[in-house]
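> forwarded from #structure-qc
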């Protein structure tokens, strides 16, 4: 039995929208059972303004959110990861750093809301859709009986959540 919160890393390429939104959602839904993190293989260095606006409008604390490299989580002293979720196809196909502790991983890809063209209303709707989809997936994830599932069964359930 784990005596600390589960450390979860959401990975994307730019770490500016999808992985940031997932981090914020899990921080809220995890209720202390999970510690959410996000990172990118090629971080943009800033959180997308529409992601910040959406999260603030939904009363998320955005003060600690920042775009960062996944290298931070492979360094000595980094949190021991229990789960790693890729949330974009590029990150899923990249060779990730070696994570200490062999975390369970799954691909939960979603379209990039930052890539949506159109009016500001259309773009904001894309961010809202991303939030809704992650809220649904993460709600299922946080309700799993993690202590009673073996690694193989848990891996299968996490893959199903992302499908």
């Amino acid at each position: 039995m784990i005596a600390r919160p589960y450390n979860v890393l959401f990975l994307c390429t730019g770490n500016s929208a999808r992985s940031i939104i997932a981090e914020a959602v899990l921080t809220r839904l995890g209720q202390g059972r999970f510690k959410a993190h996000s990172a990118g293989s090629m971080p943009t260095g800033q959180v997308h303004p529409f992601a910040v606006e959406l999260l603030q409008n939904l009363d998320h604390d955005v003060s600690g959110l920042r775009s960062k490299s996944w290298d931070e989580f492979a360094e000595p002293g980094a949190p021991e990861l229990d789960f790693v979720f890729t949330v974009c196809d590029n990150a899923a196909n990249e060779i990730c750093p070696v994570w200490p502790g062999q975390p369970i991983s799954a691909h939960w890809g979603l379209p990039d809301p930052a890539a949506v063209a159109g009016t500001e209303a259309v773009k904001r709707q894309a961010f809202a859709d991303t939030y809704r989809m992650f809220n649904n997936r993460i709600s299922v994830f946080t309700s799993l009986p993690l202590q009673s599932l073996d690694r193989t069964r848990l891996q299968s359930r996490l893959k199903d959540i992302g499908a």
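QC bot note: The mean pLDDT is 92. The chain has one domain: 6-156.
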